[in-house]
Amino acid sequence: MAKLDIEYGELLDVAALKAECEAVARNHAGHLLDIRAGVLPILKKASADGREVARTRLFADGSGIDCARRISWIQDQLISVIFNLVVTHVYPDNAGQIGVAAVGGYGRGTLAPGSDIDLLFLMPPKISGNMHKAVEFMLYLLWDIGFKVGHATRTIDESIRLSKSDMTIRTAILEARFVCGREELVTELDRRFDQEVANGTAPEFIAAKLAERDERHRKAGDSRYLVEPNVKEGKGGLRDLQTLFWIAKYKYHIRDAADLVRLGVLSRHEWHLFQKADDFLWAVRCHMHYLTGKPEERLYFDIQPEIARSLGYQPRPGLSAVERFMKHYFLVAKDVGDLTRIFCATLEEQQAKAAPGLTGVLGRFANRPRKIPGTPEFIEDRGRIAIADPDIFKRDPVSIMRLFHVADLNGLEFHPDALKAVTRSLSLIDNDFRESEEANRLFLAILTSRKDPGFMLRRMNEAGVLGRFIPEFGKIVSMMQFNMYHHYTVDEHLIRTVEVLAEIEKGKSEEIHPLSAKVMPSIEDRQSLYVAVLLHDVAKGRQEDHSIAGAKVARKLCPRFGLNAKQTELVAWLIEQHLLMSMVAQTRDLHDRKTITDFADTVQSLERLKMLLVLTVCDIRAVGPGVWNGWKGQLLRTLYYETELLLSGGFSEVSRKERAKHAAEMLTKSLGDWSQKDQKTYTKLHYEPYLLSVALEDQVRHTHFIRQADKAGQALATMVRTHSFHAITEITVLSPDHPRLLSIIAGACAAAGANIADAQIFTTSDGRALDTILVNREFPIDEDEMRRAATIGKMIEDVLSGRKRLPEVIATRSKGKKKNKTFPVQPHVTISNALSNKFTVIEVECLDRIGLLAEITAVLSDLSLDIHSARITTFGEKVIDTFYVTDLVGQKVTNENRQASIAAQLKGVMGEQSDELRDRMPSGIIAPQVQRAVPVQKKAKV
């Protein structure tokens, strides 16, 4: 303690604090409340000042573990001063017989700025009433200062008894550390705990802690590569390191984790990794607590940039400062995983020596390792592959790759000792290893295995083999992308993509991906597909576009893997175009023929189309939970079928006019139970674009809907339908046409909390609008989703009729919503006349927010642009919205000055919403008293 007092003396003047508190106690002798009130501001100030010095030192030296120790030391002194006050002036009779111990994380002598304080008040066998009162006085004072205190008051006998039956109490007592009071009680507890609880129960404790760790990982997302990790509880976080120390302390009866080197559990290099990981994670955690002012344990996006700045990270070409920081974080998390595996391997080996098995003949052979046919290097040990000779990798480095291949062939898990040996042999994977024909043949067999290639690749990555064997892959190991769209690091995303591909190939995803499951068996070159899937994002983090750079990487790697020239070019093409199908499907009008012809010109063959479809599905599925939905699947299927038709020569050569005439005849025929007058009247409502792009089933449904509204005398009406497979809900709006109709509908949807995915906009021949709005589904049960859709429809009707004002309802929805300024998305507008034969295509890209679509469409209306269709696509925090427009006479916008004006005005609304914009939002287009639509003749949209 004396050494710490000297080292940490600048944090707190303990003698002065003690004297000041005692002076207050003497002035208010016998008045407990007055003493509490008098010393409270003194203790509060001392705590705040000391922690501020600790914060300053953290920024100066960067050591997280030192910061945690400083705060723990400050806490020790405060508790000691309070205890001294109690035993000297408050309850001087018997309070001095209490032993105060720190437990939990505080027991290890480390505290983060916002951590709880866990205390154990050890009582002597004979307890007086004043002892409990003394404890209460201490606790109330600590609570008044602002600390969260977890506490227990027990005798040694009670502590021992409870720790035998409660693993949480056992863990807490394992880390008990004397703070103040009667030290011999804490010493006696420690001695009896070792003898009566820990002795002989290590296997039970280890099993419980590892099970607890697995459950904690499951709750935290079961991946150490989540882009918003939990620094304390997540996989690869501080709790994992603490679990190692708990187990080591329990099994080996050590006080210092450095003793693990002496015991041969960890090498000196591994112990150095342990220290570095511990210090780094503590630095991150302490900075998080100081930054947020609370015990925040999850490294959320909005605090990552500030933490990166606090830790001194700078941007580099291709990677921002925050991405470099997070890559370091995930590399540390990976080191923690390596240490856990190595530690567990040693534990298992020692446990096996201590308990060799049952006696007798059966016992000698029950758990005996068995030879694996065809390979002398490896053996099977209880369903796990192990190495037969510790020097095998030194003699034949390619055996490192062979280990994973044999495990795959025989469906074996890995013995921890084998993976420990691999991790310690990574330096053997050099250029000769990488160029080895045998190593590459084995790797390609692992990657294209029909069993579980994702599992093997993940084990290879965790052991460090994948990054060493493919240096380009090594560059993206633990790399995160600072956005809300990607849920995992790049390497984890690529491995998950391979997992999805294997799942599709096995026929396990037929319900989710019916088309991919159908085309996969017909793909001739599955080798090239697997390689493309693994490498499609391998060039992330470079200045050059990652698709183009990735194609270059593929041209270098594929020949090494054993692929021929044709396969190499196919892989390179797939990687270069891996985003094309997704972007076309989600951001282009698939009913516009030029969209299909342009896409087909790029794809050129049915084989490429099949492979690109499957790659696209795997890529989207592996981004993260909730990213894939049935609507995206439907868009991809539509694009696939339309392109397949064109590539196979099946596109109709019949004129557009003749096809529209035939569609009208089919609609009339489908209304056969109507009167001829109604058939003629309602069929003539629809123009060519509607007849050619809307399915007959929907035309019939829409026509029934319009006639029903007319009979009811409704000026506006809505109809809803759910599509559970597509994860989309369809809202059809019938209303008098209005230039700003889509803007009002979009605003109403935003006010109702609905995210629009697509919009089809049509005008009837009597001047009404028939708009179909597709919103993302929210509830899994149809009844719940129908109620929600009805609420959205009602909101649309209320806004259109003027019963509710759009600016007010959007403002209400936005109230209390935190504005997302974490992600810098530069507003961008692209205007093209080359993407459609009939329309000008306007694409906007910017940061998403409530009411954005309503404002953008309002501006387009103000600019006298007629919106024919819209595609609304959200990628995390970013939106890419595409509008197919013409001017008011149905022509493309070709004037360059006008295009520049459109782009400028759109950029003006793509940032923060202004009061001026809110004022421009229309309240509605139909007065509440109007009961029936007034037909207005209007030229058809073409």
Automatic annotation (TrEMBL):
<dbReference type="InterPro" id="IPR002912">
    <property type="entry name" value="ACT_dom"/>
</dbReference>
<feature type="domain" description="ACT">
    <location>
        <begin position="841"/>
        <end position="920"/>
    </location>
</feature>
<dbReference type="GO" id="GO:0008773">
    <property type="term" value="F:[protein-PII] uridylyltransferase activity"/>
</dbReference>
<keyword id="KW-0808">Transferase</keyword>
<keyword id="KW-0548">Nucleotidyltransferase</keyword>
<dbReference type="InterPro" id="IPR045865">
    <property type="entry name" value="ACT-like_dom_sf"/>
</dbReference>
<dbReference type="Pfam" id="PF01966">
    <property type="entry name" value="HD"/>
</dbReference>
<dbReference type="Pfam" id="PF24931">
    <property type="entry name" value="ACT_ACR9_3rd"/>
</dbReference>
<dbReference type="GO" id="GO:0006808">
    <property type="term" value="P:regulation of nitrogen utilization"/>
</dbReference>
<dbReference type="InterPro" id="IPR003607">
    <property type="entry name" value="HD/PDEase_dom"/>
</dbReference>
<dbReference type="InterPro" id="IPR013546">
    <property type="entry name" value="PII_UdlTrfase/GS_AdlTrfase"/>
</dbReference>
<dbReference type="InterPro" id="IPR043519">
    <property type="entry name" value="NT_sf"/>
</dbReference>
<dbReference type="Pfam" id="PF01909">
    <property type="entry name" value="NTP_transf_2"/>
</dbReference>
<dbReference type="InterPro" id="IPR006674">
    <property type="entry name" value="HD_domain"/>
</dbReference>
<feature type="region of interest" description="Uridylyltransferase">
    <location>
        <begin position="1"/>
        <end position="373"/>
    </location>
</feature>
<dbReference type="InterPro" id="IPR010043">
    <property type="entry name" value="UTase/UR"/>
</dbReference>
<feature type="domain" description="HD">
    <location>
        <begin position="490"/>
        <end position="606"/>
    </location>
</feature>
<keyword id="KW-0378">Hydrolase</keyword>
<keyword id="KW-0677">Repeat</keyword>
<keyword id="KW-0460">Magnesium</keyword>
<comment type="function">
    <text>Modifies, by uridylylation and deuridylylation, the PII regulatory proteins (GlnB and homologs), in response to the nitrogen status of the cell that GlnD senses through the glutamine level. Under low glutamine levels, catalyzes the conversion of the PII proteins and UTP to PII-UMP and PPi, while under higher glutamine levels, GlnD hydrolyzes PII-UMP to PII and UMP (deuridylylation). Thus, controls uridylylation state and activity of the PII proteins, and plays an important role in the regulation of nitrogen metabolism.</text>
</comment>
<protein>
    <recommendedName>
        <fullName>Bifunctional uridylyltransferase/uridylyl-removing enzyme</fullName>
        <ecNumber>2.7.7.59</ecNumber>
        <ecNumber>3.1.4.-</ecNumber>
    </recommendedName>
</protein>
<keyword id="KW-0511">Multifunctional enzyme</keyword>
<dbReference type="InterPro" id="IPR002934">
    <property type="entry name" value="Polymerase_NTP_transf_dom"/>
</dbReference>
<comment type="similarity">
    <text>Belongs to the GlnD family.</text>
</comment>
<dbReference type="GO" id="GO:0008081">
    <property type="term" value="F:phosphoric diester hydrolase activity"/>
</dbReference>
<dbReference type="Pfam" id="PF08335">
    <property type="entry name" value="GlnD_UR_UTase"/>
</dbReference>
<feature type="domain" description="ACT">
    <location>
        <begin position="730"/>
        <end position="811"/>
    </location>
</feature>
